[in-house]
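A reminder from the course coordinator: this example appears on the midterm review sheet, so study it carefully.

Given structure:
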């Protein structure tokens, strides 16, 4: 059955495209519908996706015509729209995140020191870049205690699918 114009599906696509454009524009510092390729991970994550570095590289290969270091909105929009419609790069479930942080919490107190967090996230697994680490610390650390209360952070990160 053909989808009629103005249907729920059309509205969903339009809303998804609007969200993608808004996220893209945050990083389009020159206002020319172009972003630095290094910003794609931040854009994709701001849209509620959790791709691995390998998945990000695959996405970049689809949207970067030649390795110029820049991504154009007209190339990114249809690819990212499909990613969101297909629900690719699903977020990690809350219980899995909680279990991971609890494993790092030596004192079982619900928090991790800034030093421990930086060590884990820059030296283990897929390491955070300096910029990613600074972004996370600016939102994740309790400014009074300089610690990372992971339950609070997880509740901020969780995307409500309902």
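Designed residues:
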């Amino acid at each position: 059955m053909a989808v009629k114009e103005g249907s729920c599906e059309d509205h969903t696509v339009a809303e998804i495209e609007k969200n993608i454009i808004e996220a893209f524009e945050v990083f389009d510092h020159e206002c020319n519908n172009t972003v630095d390729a290094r910003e794609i991970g931040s854009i994709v994550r701001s849209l509620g996706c959790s791709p691995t570095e390998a998945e990000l590289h695959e996405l970049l290969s689809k949207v970067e015509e030649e390795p110029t270091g820049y991504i154009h909105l007209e190339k990114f929009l249809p690819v990212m729209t499909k990613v969101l419609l297909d629900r690719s790069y699903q977020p990690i479930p809350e219980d899995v995140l909680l279990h991971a942080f609890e494993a790092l919490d030596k004192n079982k107190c619900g928090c991790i020191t800034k030093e421990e967090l930086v060590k884990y996230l820059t030296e283990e697994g897929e390491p955070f870049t300096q910029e990613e680490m600074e972004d996370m610390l600016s939102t994740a650390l309790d400014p009074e205690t300089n610690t990372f209360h992971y339950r609070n952070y997880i509740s901020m990160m969780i995307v409500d699918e309902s």
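The helical segments are 8-27, 40-46, 53-63, 73-85, 94-104, 114-123, 130-140, 150-157. The two ends are 26 Å apart (CA to CA).
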